[in-house]
Amino acid sequence: MSPDDPARHQESARRLTPARVLDVDRLLEDPRNRIVVCCGSGGVGKTTTAAALGLRAAERGRKVVVLTIDPARRLAQSMGIDSLDNTPRRVKGVDDSAGGELHAMMLDMKRTFDEIVESHADPDRAAAILGNPFYQSLSAGFAGTQEYMAMEKLGQLRAKDEWDLIVVDTPPSRSALDFLDAPKRLGSFLDGKLIRVLLAPAKVGGRAGMKFLNVGMSMMTGVLGKVLGGPFLKDVQTFVAAMDSMFGGFRTRADATYKLLQASGTAFLVVAAPERESLREAAYFVERLAAEDMPLAGLVLNRVHGSGADRLSAERALAAAENLEDARIVDQNGGKAGLRSSPGNSPDPHGSSEPADAAHDDSTPDAAPEAPDAGAPERSVDALAAGLLRLHAERMHLLAREQRTRDRFTARHPEVAVTEVAALPGDVHDLAGLRDIGARLATGRPELPEPGA
Asked: CB 3.0–4.6 Å: which of 92, 126, 282, 405 could bond 272 by disulfide?
């Protein structure tokens, strides 16, 4: 079969049928599943996927909370809520005939950090920590804080045992792996050399501590003071001294949440688009989850393109467009055959092919005006048809490219169950749109049949 064979391109344009199809409804309805984590690179539809899954589970009888870390607040808009905050809010308009409920919340990173301090320190120490300039910077945007606080909030929600199902929309980090790495990074920070240096004077105490600091660490603190600034270094030392008794709690909770993610009641869904970079990161995440012994439910492939006319290959469409656009390939105007078949245009018996009235002098005053070009409307229709054929060819090339990308992922990870969602013409803005996405997720097909079909 040659590379340009139409049958080959027709075959490549067909949608991949995964070796394993992800059963979304079974995942959502199983009472043993208590946490679903939607993860993946940025811009692949994690937030919409998480919201659609939460809505579908709620309308099947489960009490659900969706935790998002989406700064664009799309989740609140699609659920008809003015705003989301650190407290779960019940979503109205959900079909609760099966006894389910849907709640939603958006992580407030600083407020979550404040809650940890307030719940694990006495009032005086908590006030000192909350008012510390270094703490305020750390809680507002220290690298990895958002991911750690997302883990912390997940642990809090699960500990309450109030929800049948928690759906987590992971942070829009540069790398989706940040969500998994956050607890370990925090532990490394708390156990790091800098923290031990800053804690040393407080641990030695009194004059001995000051002597130790002045003699043994003057060079270290001098360098840090020049790099960080004296006031800033003092703020850090004060913060570390105040937080010392809490560091063990951070590590303990981080470890507990990490184990929770490894438990059998948790399911990870990797969300991706049918593009090379997105599926490459999805493959890396699948491998990392396996290495960390975390349960992977499957892959959600968003924005998959399809066509109801995929029997017409890109090559045939382009060839037809060229025929319409270039009359030298195929005579589209009928040539002289049109003249011969027109009334009154019979050939001259003396051999002339001109019409009988064409011999009169065009220069005379009563010459008839030139007739309009009868082929112009036909040519404009041909141009429109050629444009549509070229658009179809582009679509078929896109389908073939997505097919090849999905094939590579499936060949590399045949054990991963897949469900696909079609590329939609616009964003989802309401519950009806989320409900439609949920239905598409559950069918495992990019396109749904028309009602009554």
From this structure: 282
Q: Pick from 40, 49, 47: which is nearest to 105 by CA?
A: 47
Residue 83: half-sphere exposure toward Cβ, Cα within 13 Å: 4
d(CA 416, CA 279): 13
DSSP state of 21: B
| In the block, residue with structure tokens 């070796």 | 19
- Distance, CA of 278 to CA of 272 (rounded, Å): 6
- The rounded distance, in Å, linking the Cα atoms of 336 and 413 is 62
288-332 pLDDT, tens per residue? 899 989 999 999 999 888 776 767 776 776 777 677 777 555 544
State the average pLDDT over residues 23-37: 96
Cβ atoms of 435 and 56 within 8 Å: the answer is yes
- Token output for 129: 């920590």
> Tokens at residue 54, please?
């939460």
Question: What does R_g of the chain's alpha carbons equal in angstroms?
Answer: 34
Half-sphere exposure for 304 (CA within 13 Å, toward CB) = 30
Query: Could you tell me if 145 and 254 are in contact, meaning their C-beta atoms sit under 8 angstroms apart?
Result: no
State which amino acid sits at residue 352. S
Comparing CA positions, the residue from 380, 395, 399, 375 lying closest to residue 318 is: 395
Indicate the domain borders of the chain. Answer: 12-304
Q: In this structure, are residues 38 and 50 in contact, taking their beta carbons and an 8 Å threshold? A: yes
Strand (E) positions, 6-131?
35-39, 63-68, 89-90, 101-106
Of 71, 12, 56, 31, give the one whose Cα is nearest residue 405. 12
Residues 390-402 as b/e (b if ≥16 CB within 10 A, e otherwise) read: bebbebbbbbbbb
Alpha carbons 89 and 197: distance in angstroms, whole number: 44
**Confidence band, pLDDT 50/70/90 cuts, at residue 409:** very high
Read off the pTM: 0.72
Name the H helices within 263-308.
Answer: 276-291
Spatial strand order of the sheet with 266-272 comes to 89-90, 101-106, 63-68, 165-169, 35-39, 266-272, 296-304, 418-422
* Rounded-to-integer distance, Cα 38 and Cα 42, Å: 12
Distance CA 259, CA 253 (A): 10
How far, in Å, CA of 196 to CA of 194, rounded? 5
